[in-house]
Amino acid sequence: MLLYFTIIFAIPPQWEVRNRTCKHIYAMGNLMEILNKQKLLDLVDGAAIFSAGGGGAPELGYGIIEKLVNEGYEVKLVKTEEVPEDAILVNFACVGATSAVGYDNDAAVKTLKTLEEHVDKKFFGVVPVELGGFNTLVAVDVAARCGLPVVDADGAGRAVPEVHLKVYTIDDIPLAPMAIADLYAQNIILVKKTANSKAAERIARTLANKWGGTAYTARRIITGRQARYSPIQGTLSNSIKIGELLRTSENPLETVLAETGGYKLFVGRVVKVSRKTAGGFTWTDVYMRGKGEFEDSTFIFRAKNEVLVAYRNGKLAGMGPDIITPVDLQTGKCISAERLYELRELAIIGIKAPEKWRTEKGLELWREVLQRSGVIEDYVPIENLVET
After folding, report:
1. Total number of domains constituting the chain
2. Domain ranges, residue 22
């Protein structure tokens, strides 16, 4: 019996034994779920609900999945508690204006490999930096193409407009070293150290802006031990669940609100959209008139890639870090801010931010970003605004 267990645990990681019935991988004592195409599509739609209208358009995420599946790659999802404490994980995402997003998988992989070569240690897995219909799937894609699992966690529990605006900053985990590359990895820059996380944001944003509005970043290396407490836990599996509800429910919008504890902030028609791309961001102002229970009401929201703030009848209706997402009335699926147009009928939903963002340090990070973006109101929790 002793010899039997010695043989099992001596199996090299590449000799994975798959249980084809339950679709999981057993490797080095870890249990990793294999995500099939349907679960990946559900992940796109579910992650987009938490994107605040940013994180890249879900349509781009669908395209990533099609290519990944057609080329035969396998996506493995690992829980943070299954990552060895001394292993290292890398966060991966695109940076730039949501209206200028492009993606080349070979260039993305090259970006990750550049950072891995610099630290001279193999990454155990990849963590998405945020939840969004595109940016979450970028991390999934790079992980699969590198033969690594994607971790069931992310750095924000939503999509966020700036690189440093992650829960890791609350925990004083440095953003650098960081590899940054342009769309086709013709230029790859390695940032070994920055004064702070905000400095890393300025570097990444400036380069993305110079490179046509988008860049890849491999950054924020964390250990397995840090993965257990710093990122927002279980967000990918939760997003898959939300995506499945959107797909299978008779009333997807109400079902998702019930599941997330969210709020219907407004229902109406877009009457005006003002949009510009500047400084590495897509700025969008949307004006709406109400219908049904919101008849004779107005609603305005402003996005800096992601929706930052919203007003109903001139009064504050929600603001970051809480999540404000425009969704389709029939399907309940997110419509990203850069793809909104006049006469489109929408519902606007609000979801409470992860508790980590509501701490003193979390709110201070958001306050600085909001004020720089022209939002001067003090934070009021969305549940308090709904009650009033």
Report:
1. 2
2. 13-238
Over residues 184-229, the pLDDT tens digits come to 999 999 999 999 999 999 999 999 999 999 999 999 999 999 999 9
Q: pTM value?
A: 0.92
Are 17 and 108 within one domain?
Answer: yes
Query: Cα–Cα distance between 166 and 157 in angstroms, integer?
Result: 9
Query: Is 44 within the bounds of a domain?
Result: yes
Segment 12-58, tens digit of pLDDT: 333 232 332 233 343 444 579 999 999 999 999 999 999 999 999 99
Residues 293 and 198 in one domain: no
Q: Are residues 294 and 148 in the same domain?
A: no
